[in-house]
Each structure stands twice: as C-alpha cells, then as structure tokens.
C-alpha cells in the first residue's frame, strides 16, 4: 500500500464510529416548523445547474445554464460568469470570469483557494462533454489552472473537510465515451495531489452532499441506463468517515429525488427540492419538488419540515454562519423556467 497522508490518518488508531445506530421516533405532536423562509434580492440573470461554495465568508456561483439569445440546449447556454453574494449587504456583484464556459461546474473551497471542478463543456450539438480540468483562485485573483481530476467528472458531490477537497460520484465517460454513472471518490490533498478514496456503495449522479461533524452525507441522486435513455431516481443515502475511509448506509431519503441540495445547519442535514423524471426518463413529464427535509444524524430520522413557495431543482445552497441561502435553479423539470430568485432559510431557536 502506498503511503499517503490519508493512509496515515486512516491507520493512526482511530476506531470506527457508528452511524444510524440509534433509531429514534419522529417528534410527536410537533406542528410548528423549526425553520423560517424569506425571499431575498435575486441574481441579475436566471441560472440553474450550479454548485456554489462559500469562500472567505461569501457565496460564489460560477458557470451554470442561463437563458441565451443563442441557446445550445432548450433556450439555455453554459456561462463563464462568476457571481459573489455578500451576506452582510444581501447583494450580488460580479467576480472573475471562468477561462471557458461550463455548466454543472463543481465548486468547493478551503481556507486558501476556491475551486471550480470538472463539469460539462457544451456547444450546440455536443452539450454534455464531461471535463476533468480544475481551476482555482485566491482572494483578489483570477481563475488559474489547478491539478486536473484523475478522470473527467460532472454532476458529482463536492465537499471540504480539514482543507481537503472531495469529489464524489457523478458522471464520467466510459470506454465508449458515453457519460456513465460512477462510484469514484477523489480527495485533493494539500492543494497539490488527487488521491483515490473509498468509492461509494452505488453509482449515481445528481446526488447532494453535506458535511456534518466532519462526515460527508450523500443523499438521493439518479442512475442512468448504459444507453442513456432511461433514468431512475434514488432515495439511497450514505455517510463517509474520512478517518477510516469508509462509507456506511443510513436511513433513505423519504422521496427518490435528484438535482436536490443538501446542507449542514444546526447539526442536521437540510435537503431541499429536486426533481424526478417521468416514465422512461422523460423529463418533459417529470415532477419538481418544493419539500424541505431535515435529517438528524443522531436519531437517523428524516422529517418533512417545510415547503418552498415554488418547486426548485438544479439550484445551489450554501450556509454562512447560521443562515442557509437557496440560489437559482428551475421550478420545472429539466431546462424549464430557470430562476434568479434567492431564498434565505434560518433555524428557529
């Protein structure tokens, strides 16, 4: 076995922790929601299929699909724009543009850099070109090249634990250059090297992930058939402990949804929205969701907590201090009715 910082941590004598070992009951008689939702000033332009991240106390959105006068996909085109949200002023400003357009660009940050990871490059007639390129920038800089992923990946889960950047699952080209679901899991160590980590239990794309107490919770998602013609939504959920490089199954999400978000707030996983395709993977007959689900890692229970004022998928969600921000997305399945709106979610104490 090759020595690495991850292997040292893994074998440093830390014992496994139990996940979902306590099966609690839903809180009886509780009717009042523990969260409040408030509409904020939206983006200048509607945008969907985004994976925003928090860097230096602000929210960053880069790439994504936006309405375009010269669309490449049902009225939409990928962008290279970066938008920055200040939680102090509740306003947006423009940031440095990406080197080239991307949709489904993965984003994650540590204390030193903000990363734009993989995603799809698109042009008319070839919209879904998965990429392994990675860019990053520090405060006041521009996007510059960073170490490439070991393989092209898009529609993955992106997370940061102790300065290390994780990229989990999603889609990657197979031997026939078709985008196929993957279990792959890589970690960027010390901002320099990608190392392989334990793969997930199942292959999937469009899942959502959140870090609670230094563990990564991955929920929902979608599996696509080998020919790309059929899609099946998932409720499967699991958690990763980086100290032992191991995944454990947890209680499934109550609904099988993809294109949702998951965030960590008040020691819980907050899963929001998502979509489900219709029969035979037909997105035109699918359903978008407005449900806010809350998962308690201690009781291993999900609770339906609230409803957004409109359905939302392909959106982004970030937490800054004690506030969760829900950004953009679309209120109908697929490339329909793209949103510029932003919603603030807070936990009622």
Brief descriptors of the model:
349 residues, Neuraminidase, 4-stranded antiparallel β-sheet, 1 helix, globular, single chain
Give a structural overview.
- The chain is mainly beta.
- It has a single domain, classed as Neuraminidase (6 Propeller).
- It has 1 helix and 34 strands.
- The protein has one helix spanning 5-10; strands at residues 35-40, 53-55, 58-62, 65-67, 76-78, 82-86, 91-95, 106-109, 114-117, 120-123, 126-130, 134-137, 144-146, 157-161, 164-173, 179-189, 193-196, 208-212, 215-219, 222-224, 231-233, 237-241, 246-250, 261-265, 268-272, 275-276, 287-288, 291-296, 301-307, 316-320, 323-327, 330-332, 336-338, 342-347.
- The chain has a 4-stranded antiparallel β-sheet, with no helix packed on it. Strands 2-3-6-7 form a 4-stranded antiparallel β-sheet, with no helix packed on it. It has a 4-stranded antiparallel β-sheet with strand order 8-9-12-13, with no helix packed on it.
- Strand 28 (291-296) and strand 29 form a beta hairpin.
- The longest helix has 6 residues, at 5-10.
- The radius of gyration is 19 Å and the shape is globular.
- It starts with a helix and ends with a strand.
């Amino acid at each position: 076995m090759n020595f690495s910082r991850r292997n040292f941590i893994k074998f440093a004598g830390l014992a496994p922790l139990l996940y979902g070992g306590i099966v609690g009951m839903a809180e009886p008689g509780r009717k009042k929601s523990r969260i409040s939702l408030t509409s904020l000033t939206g983006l200048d332009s509607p945008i969907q299929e985004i994976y925003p991240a928090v860097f230096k106390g602000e929210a960053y959105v880069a790439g994504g699909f936006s309405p375009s006068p010269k669309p490449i996909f049902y009225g939409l085109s990928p962008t290279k724009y970066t938008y920055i949200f200040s939680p102090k002023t509740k306003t947006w400003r423009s940031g440095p543009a990406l080197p080239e357009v991307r949709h489904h660009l993965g984003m994650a940050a540590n204390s030193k850099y903000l990363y734009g990871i993989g995603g799809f490059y698109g042009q008319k007639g070839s919209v879904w070109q998965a990429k392994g390129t990675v860019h990053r920038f520090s405060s006041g800089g521009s996007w510059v090249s960073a170490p490439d992923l070991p393989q092209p990946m898009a529609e993955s889960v992106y997370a940061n634990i102790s300065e290390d950047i994780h990229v989990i699952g999603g889609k990657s080209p197979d031997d026939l250059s078709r985008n196929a679901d993957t279990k792959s899991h890589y970690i960027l160590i010390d901002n320099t090297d990608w190392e392989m980590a334990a793969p997930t239990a199942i292959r999937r794309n469009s899942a959502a992930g959140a870090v609670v107490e230094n563990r990564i919770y991955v929920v929902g998602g979608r599996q696509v058939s080998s020919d790309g013609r059929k899609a099946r939504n998932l409720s499967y959920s699991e958690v990763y402990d980086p100290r032992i490089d191991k995944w454990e199954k947890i209680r499934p999400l109550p609904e099988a949804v993809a294109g949702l978000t998951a965030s960590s707030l008040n020691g819980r996983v907050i899963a929001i929205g998502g979509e489900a395709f219709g029969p035979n993977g037909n997105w035109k007959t699918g359903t978008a969701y407005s449900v806010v689900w809350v998962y308690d890692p201690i009781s291993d229970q999900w609770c339906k907590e609230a409803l957004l004022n409109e359905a939302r998928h392909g959106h982004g969600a970030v937490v800054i201090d004690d506030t969760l921000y829900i950004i953009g997305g679309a209120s109908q399945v697929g490339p329909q009715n793209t949103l510029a709106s932003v919603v603030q979610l807070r936990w009622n104490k």
